[in-house]
Amino acid sequence: MASQIIFFEKNKLDIDNESASITVTDLVAYNDGADFVNRLRNRDNRSAWMTTDSTDAANTQLDIDLGEDEFITDIILVKHNFKSYTIQYWNGSTYINFSTVIAPSNDTKTTSHYNFNKIETDKIRIIIYGTQIADADKELFQLIITDRIAQLNGWPEISGVEFDTSKRVTKMLSGKIHMTESYEAFGFNLTLPVYSDDDDVAVFKNIYERRSGILAWLCGGDETQFKALTKGYRLEDIYLVRPTNDFSAELYKGLYKSGIKINLQFKECII
């Protein structure tokens, strides 16, 4: 069954959380990657944390300190090669399992998502026992630890999906062009002429009132629902966005018993 869009709070481990830290323990690796472990929280799928000369027997351990107690419902490992591992949280005296135990022994996915009953903690521990190719170095591009805002019930139209690079084109005297551009910024729109799901409307209003970025996952954790899978709809495509237009409560055709018009314009943001 298809899965609708999911919105999350900003990653509790996000790079702008100056109190957060990650400690790596790997007694076998020549380099445990500790010097660039912050790549796990920089929102960038182009750079990764990776060990050098580690083995499956190393039982590589990531200890995540969030800096303070946070509410958590979801953990997403974005672009990884882990086969066997466990993820637990600190309850104040010891590390314990989530309500849904996270202990896969044969994970074949490159992006893995776990949802569980809401807990409050300041520490998470990941122990990696094996990689999908035996004795390969461990690799993880993003670690997202977050609290779910909501998964939509209805199906607004997704449009205007773009990766804006702010291209500037200057035509030279020779007739050739000089082009400058930045790294892409993700954007999309949610539109529907009439929307009457009260829960979803409350979610949209909540997103506007936050005045800060939220994580948007267009595939909702199921990329198999798309006939042609493209960038923006993959499991790995999770972006920090904010609405760029104002919230509107205009009724469809002005009728009191009809729903409201939905037009949310999202753009990738800094905070």
Number of helices: 1
- Tell me the distance between the termini: 33 Å
Global morphology = globular
As laid out across the biggest beta sheet, the strand order is 9-1-14-15-16-13-10
Rounded to the nearest angstrom, the radius of gyration is 21 Å
Low-confidence stretches: none
Structural class: mainly beta
What share of residues is helical? under 10%
Mean of all residue-level pLDDT scores: 94
Which terms would index this structure?
single chain; 271 residues; mainly beta; Jelly Rolls; 1 helix
Characterization of this structure:
Helices cover 5% and strands 44% of the residues. The radius of gyration is 21 Å and the shape is globular. The longest helix is centred in the C-terminal third of the chain and has 13 residues, at 198-210. Strand 5 (82-90) and strand 6 form a beta hairpin. It is built from one helix and 16 strands. By secondary structure, it is mainly β. The protein has one helix spanning 198-210; strands at residues 6-9, 21-25, 49-50, 60-80, 82-90, 95-96, 112-131, 139-146, 148-151, 157-164, 168-171, 177-180, 185-195, 214-217, 239-243, 260-268. The chain starts with 5 loop residues before the first strand and ends with a strand. It has two domains: 11-147, Galactose-binding domain-like (Jelly Rolls); 157-268, no CATH class.
